[in-house]
Structure formats: structure tokens, C-alpha cells
Amino acid sequence: MTTTPEHDDLAPVLRALRDGLPRTRAQLARELGLSRSTMSTRVDDLLALGLVAPTGDAGSTGGRPASTFAFTPGARIVAGVDLGATHARIVLTDLAAHEIADHREEVCIASGPGPVLDRVVEVVHTLLAEAGRDLADLAGVGVGLPGPVDHASGRPTKPPIMPGWDGHDVAGHLHAGLGSAPVLVDNDVNLMALAEHSSALPQVEHLLFVKVATGIGAGIIADGRVHRGAQGSAGDLGHVAVPGGEPVPCTCGNTGCLEAVAGAAAVAARLREHGVEARTSDDVVALVRGGNIVATQAVRDAGRAVGAVLASCVSLLNPSAIVVGGSMARVGEHLVAGIREVVYARPLPLATQNLRVTTSRIGAHAGALGGAWLAVENAFDTPGLLTRGTAGAADALSPVAPLPAAQVG
């Protein structure tokens, strides 16, 4: 159904009810400065669309009790997609980002956009069917990629670990299999920061989310919003030189980059130099959890290197919280202890007196949940998107064979 001005007029009412608090028609009319008759019509329209539901009576002050109404988050759903170097996680949530379905599998991002994105389409269709929903219910898709992204176009920009993805129309590719729902694409760490802020720390207006895994990057929340920078590359900590660090060659062509010094591959290589067999972040985590002293010290050193770079960020951005996530964060306090050791020591006391440095509360779901939040926020910010009735559904694609698992070696 084509969006009409009447449907656009419903958006302020829907946004007012988004907080979940039941209200009467009269309360909504006063809150939005509308007449009772106008509000009554708009509430009736939202009831017909299933976007609000009656919750009972407000209580009588003499006469017939007024009915109250509240937002129905499950009236529409969104999909969040987190694509990493070696994994894909896809979730379905309602419009309050409450998880409905979750799927994770190993993939190889280097397989290229065709097989990876076709697989995403297939999984979304499967999750929709299992949840008893269809494409008409899908209000948006948020996708996180492990590399630089032009947020305006949704196209990857020279991503170092994603051969064949440079400039690919990710949103257009997914549209072909998922119908008319908007597709938004961003860097995965930005989405992790969005998820941590929206779901776990909504009261924190200035937050720095640091992903420490194969690569290292940061998502910046400033004044409650994701800060992407002029070209979308804000937060690219992995290729900042570590102060006083060794001139280790990096994949970017420079030496001494944080990723080359403190990333999972760098820590594993350092362990092999000491005769401890480790290849992946999973190996490092297992060794630390098993009490291996060499691995624990290597992780603590990696934390200090991350902290040395973050110390400058703290002085520049003055965040209230630094949240550490990614596969290496699973080692527990050892990584964070190394970060704290440097971060609390170097900046001026004013910048650190109320600073918290902690691990992610959301964990492995942060990227996909951030994608869902991105789609939810877009749905509420786009006039008529949630109130247009049914979305145009595309035919389901033919089954796509599972991607080959990423080779670890």
C-alpha cells in the first residue's frame, strides 16, 4: 500500500507510545497538542494496523473509565546481520529489539559477496518461516561488515579482509531476495556500540566500544548517537601506531599498528614463539582459561598496548565508559586489566575520574543486535514505513547451499 499523508500523521503518535507506557486518547491528545477527535481517529488507525493494542482502563474519576493503549512491538519485525571474517550471525527481533530467532554458522567472508549474501537471504527466509512471520512483516534489515563502509551507500570501501567486496551494492543484493524492506549497512563495530548503548547502557551518552579480535576497531557513541566521521572511518583504531611499540609489519603496509601488536593473530604468534601452540582467538582464550601463564601474560601485554592507544582517545573524546568486546574479550579480566592499567594512568584525572572500563554485557550477539537496532531506529525515523500496511514481498530464492566453513590454520 502506498504511503499517504494520513499514515505519515500516525508516526508522532507511534513514537510517543514507543516507551511502552499505556495512555488514554485524552492523554495522548494533550501530549501531542491535538484535538481529542483527531487523536481518536489516529489511535483507531493504529489499532487497525496492529501497532497499538488496548491495555485496560485508566480508572474512573466519575463516569465511564477511559481505555488505555500501548505500543505493540511485535506488530513488525526486523533482521540484524553480523558478518565477521569467519562467522555469520542473524537475528530476528521485534520493534523493541527483543530477540525472536537467532542463527549462527561459520562462513568465510573471503568467499565473496555473492555466496555470503545469498546465504543471508536464505537464512532470513528460514527464520521468518520458523517464527510464523513473512516478508510483509519485515520493517528493515541492518547489516554489519568487518571493514570500512560508506554508510550513505552501504557499500564496502577497500575492506582489507574482504576480497571482491569493494564497492559491492550490499543493500541492493539483499533487496533482490528480501523485498521492499529497507536495508542499512554499517561497520560491525559501530553496530556493536549501538547495541551496547541501546540495550545495556542507554543512560551513557558518551561511550567507546572496542572490539578486540582478529582485527581491532572502535565504535563511538557521542551525545547518544553513533559518530562515523566524514568518510565513515571514525574509530579505526587497528591501524593506529602503538606508542613505543615494536615495528611489527601490518597488513595495511605500515608497521607497529595496534592490530599487528595486540590482535588475536599477533597474540597467537607471540605464544608460538614461546613454544605454546595457538592459532586462533579460541586457542588463546582456552589457554588463558586453563591457567597458562605465558598466554595470560601475553593477553595482559596486549591489553596494555590497546590501553596505550585508548589513552589518547580518552583525552580526545572524554567518554563515560569504554566497553571491550570481540572474541578476545572472552578471556575475562586479564585483557581489561591491561587496558585499565594504562588508560587510568596517562590521561588527566578530569578525563578518567568517572570513566568505567568493562567488558560487553551483550557479548557475541552485539553485532547482530546492533543491526536490529539500526533497522528499528530507521523504521521509526522514516515517515510512513511502519504505517504503510503490508510491505511488498519478493519471491523466496531457490535454496542456497551452505557456505564452506572458514579454514583455520
From TrEMBL:
Pfam families listed in its UniProt record: MarR_2, ROK
InterPro entries, per this entry? Answer: ArsR-like_HTH (IPR011991), ATPase_NBD (IPR043129), HTH_MarR-typ (IPR000835), ROK (IPR000600), ROK_cs (IPR049874), Tscrpt_reg_HTH_AsnC-type_CS (IPR019885), WH-like_DNA-bd_sf (IPR036388), WH_DNA-bd_sf (IPR036390)
HTH marR-type domain ranges (all copies): 12-57
One GO molecular-function annotation for this sequence? DNA-binding transcription factor activity
Question: What family does the database annotate?
Answer: Belongs to the ROK (NagC/XylR) family.
Q: What is this protein called?
A: N-acetylglucosamine repressor
Tell me the organism: Isoptericola dokdonensis DS-3
Name of the gene: nagC_4
